[in-house]
């Protein structure tokens, strides 16, 4: 008997339900492709027939190697200049050849190595200088490394010891008739001889002489960050060492505070005096121990096994006029006697036929004694000399008026030549070009600057007119090359003012060669 239960129900075939095309893509008629209809599951799915692009096995191309690419990336991020790139590549090459090796693994190792190296030399120390002004105490920061401590570092260096010169010398050259004296090093000049003659003979005293340089400078390209470094060199070392960049060369021993000019205080004697007090109160931190040892001497056994008593002396102060006024503490360009070296009156500065008495620290100290007895009388005397009290008097045998030296870079190259004569020449050449529509002679004078022969340590330029530098060395070279390049353009008839200027520049170049 047949049963009607569910166990007798026949299975039904699966019914495929077609999903509607939810996405349609039309192609540009020029493609020749039919519209594409796709379901939801198909749209945006990459076909299995399309393989992944192969991996680039040399992603550093067009660089020749991955190392070249990575080095270039680091050099650009660090903004390395040409010299730094060359030095670093040279180091890498020597490491690869096994000539040297580096144990530093990271920045922390580098910092530790630098700290250990710095500990071998005298560090900088921060000092707070407090100076009263208008019933308030103003505080300034000074970073100093005492000159005496730096000098002891030099004396203790066995590589420098054989090069120190302690005794004054007079050197001569025979000119065919007799011996003619000449000067080549500081110890060949009269001042060194005179200082050594004043030292105690029974102590075998010898001067330990320093050359100091101070000037405000720009520390950033845009000139927004300024500094006031003090540089020192040891005059007992030969010129190729003390003026070099290696051991025994010049070093920064202090950073003086820069006091910005306040509009309400501009030109006021009180504020000017305040700035000079700050300068000298700061500078004395650099002179620590010099005062004592300039009087008592310092016992030291030199490389030649001779025990000498060394007396520190500030032999040369190199600065431009502004800093010379600060160092000598005269009252400035408008005082009754504006020269920091001699007592020429202000109204006789242009009279080169006369000579005047040389300033001395003793005269200034005597005037200060009078001032302390009677402020009225002393002030008049100090004004007549154009002087104020000076911290450099503390160091014996270091009269600042004797020590002051012409700063050739700023006074000659950056001032007289680079600022005045060069600018006048540029103006005349520019006007000449406009007047004659850039005539042949003008164009030739410009091209001759670019074609100036190559020479060691000589800067070269492509033009004269549209170029500006703050570097005195570049100004020196530009004045020299511009003079020769302009000779054909500035003749007596075509440009008389330019012709006369060339005579002045010729005299300037002769003066510079004598100073150099």
How is this structure best described in words?
A hairpin with a 2-residue loop joins β3 (125-133) and β4. This protein has helices at 66-78, 82-96, 107-118, 147-155, 190-198, 239-242, 269-283, 290-296, 321-328, 361-373, 375-385, 400-403, 408-435, 440-450, 472-486, 496-515, and strands at 23-25, 36-38, 125-133, 136-144, 171-174, 179-182, 205-214, 217-218, 226-227, 229-234, 251-255, 298-301, 307-319, 404-406. The longest helix is centred in the C-terminal third of the chain and has 28 residues, at 408-435. Strands 3, 4, 7, 10, 11, 12, 13 and 14 form an eight-stranded mixed sheet that branches. 38% of the residues lie in helices and 15% in strands.
> What ranges have pLDDT less than 50 throughout 5 or more consecutive residues?
434-442
Gyration radius from CA atoms, angstroms: 38 Å
Strand content: 5-15%
Which bin fits the share of residues in helices?
A: 25-40%
What is the tally of beta strands?
A: 14
Task: Estimate the global geometry from the Cα principal axes.
Answer: extended
N-to-C SSE string, H for helix and E for strand: EEHHHEEHEEHEEEEHEHHEEHHHHEHHHH
What is the terminal-to-terminal distance?
137 Å
Number of helices: 16
Précis, in short:
By secondary structure, this protein is an alpha+beta fold. It contains 16 helices and 14 strands. It starts with 22 loop residues before the first strand and ends with a helix.
